[in-house]
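Input chain follows. Return structure tokens only.
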Amino acid sequence: MDARWERLFADLEGQLDEAFEEGEIPDLVEAELVSVRLVYRLALCVGQRLDVTTRSGRRLGGILHEATPGWLALGAGDGLLVIPMVAVATMGPLAGSAPPAATPAATPSFGSLLRTLARAGLPILVEAGTSQVRGHLTAVGADHFDVRTEADAVVSVPFAAVEVVRSRQDAVV
């Protein structure tokens, strides 16, 4: 190798060592990690198995189909599990860090997803704490939805109470 190149690499290595000694490298690494959002890491896991534990201790798992800041969808067998992010206690395994997207893509809200499920007309099972509601979505409001149960009663469920909505995979278009 040419002596000029050796000096250049030695100089770069010296700068890196000096930066590390002065604490700049850990600061730069920390600054980069601060910009990494959970949804970016989840985006790297689409198509892979993800295990989720909800706030109440429900253990769910499946292939990650979609992840948004508000919810994630897992394929499990022939079913689809929709889990609001506020219901997630732990999840894994996640991919390492990912750079933030240049322009965040618009993602459907939890309410929009529920409206899609309502239009599909397929039966759902809603798990909210220790309660379970089985039936068909009939209406979706800004912060709640109604389910017509198998007993022909209508039950309203606040979004904030939902841990998982189970439906068939072909329900989401």
